[in-house]
Write a structure and sequence with these properties.
heterodimer; A: 124 residues; 4 helices; B: mainly alpha; 8 helices; globular
Chain lengths: 124, 233
């Protein structure tokens, strides 16, 4: 039980919960804006999971300053690579969300409806 | 009913998969070899106090170039989708007047927000921050202008010139690294300076200023395209 009461495990649990909520929103909601919110939640949860994997026990942020000396940096900092990847992922997520909202706006202009059931053109 | 059952089954299956991943997760006690290399050699090779910045701008700078390109493409497609039918500009404005408090506060806060954004991307190699974060903060200032004065118009020419100049500057810095130092986007063609001071880490501050301006103008463009459609719904 004690292994589950750590910071990185809690962060990962929250991340996975957000992913599940986002997936639920994506597949059950009918409103297009809510589907976009589901994508956004999924994205955020994924970022939290990646950052929680980068955590090393008893480590600090990967910045060299008074708390972390250059000579012992390797034993004191968290993994900087996943954090850099998450930085990329956040920006891409923002771009994708903006793009989806633009599509929603365009679709609303065509049919004056935000319900996904009124868009049946691709349904077989 | 069957559809709901399938959806529920899908969700339960997904939870089972990630649940088994979660239960078997044990945190790590030491860095893997790659991260260890970055932590040990990053300060001497790149000169940036913030190791994440060293990874983002120098070790994996090519990734960042691709990322900026993706953001540019997203902004361009948003602009394309929302501009095509933007012919009926003569329609009366249906928006409610903004409140006195918001208008007054925005004149005070917007310059401060812009300054904070510039601070964040200028100090990107020293503190948790950087071009993307600073650019996003600048875009929140623009968002505040839009909320306070919904009828205001931005200078599209200025936005696209800023965006192009900073994008070209970013690539030019990379090519200078190729010519004067060891590789594309290598920052060591300028003196690395003292670790932890503002003018250190070679070309990283310059590259991050370019990225900050580019991201800020791209996000401003997206917000502007979304704003110009508020009257058509």
């Amino acid at each position: 039980m004690a292994q589950y009461l750590t910071l990185e495990f809690l962060a990962m649990l929250i991340g996975f919960m957000l992913i599940v909520v986002g997936l639920w929103g994506m597949i059950t909601q009918k409103n297009l804006i809510k589907i976009v919110i589901g994508f956004s939640l999924f994205d955020t949860g994924l970022n939290i999971v990646i950052v929680s994997m980068a955590y090393i026990k008893n480590s600090t942020a990967p910045i060299i300053d008074k708390a972390v000396d250059v000579s012992q940096a390797a034993s004191k900092v968290a993994d900087p690579v996943p954090q850099a990847l998450v930085l990329t992922s956040i920006v891409i997520g923002l771009g994708v969300t903006a793009l989806m909202l633009a599509y929603v706006l365009r679709m609303y202009r065509e049919k004056k409806s935000l319900d996904i059931n009124s868009y049946t053109d691709l349904k077989w | 009913m069957i559809k709901k059952g399938i959806l529920l089954l899908l969700l339960v299956g997904f939870v089972a998969i990630i649940g088994s991943l979660l239960i078997n997760f044990t945190g790590s006690n030491e860095l893997n070899p790659l991260a260890r290399y970055y932590a040990e050699n990053g300060p001497a090779e790149v000169g940036a106090a913030n190791l994440v910045t060293a990874v983002v701008v120098t070790y994996r700078g090519f990734d960042t170039l691709g990322e900026v390109t993706i953001l540019f493409i997203a902004a361009a497609i948003v602009g394309f989708f929302l501009k095509v039918m933007n012919a009926d500009n003569g329609r009366p404005n249906k928006l409610r007047k903004t409140s006195e408090i918001l208008e007054t506060a925005s004149t005070l806060l917007v310059p401060t927000i812009f300054m904070l954004g510039v601070y964040i991307f200028v100090n990107g190699h020293l503190t948790p921050g950087g071009g993307f974060q600073g650019g996003a903060v600048i875009a929140t200032g623009v968002m505040m202008i839009i909320l306070a004065q919904p009828t205001s118009r931005f200078n599209h020419k200025l936005i696209s010139v800023l965006e192009s100049v900073s994008g070209v500057g970013f690539v030019a810095m990379g090519i200078l690294g190729l010519i004067l130092a060891s590789g594309f986007l290598n920052n060591a063609f300028l003196p690395l300076g003292k670790l932890g001071s503002l003018l250190s880490a070679g070309a990283i501050p310059i590259i991050y200023v370019f990225i900050g301006i580019k991201v800020g103008s791209e996000l401003t463009g997206i917000l502007d395209s979304l704003k110009e459609n508020q009257n058509e719904i």
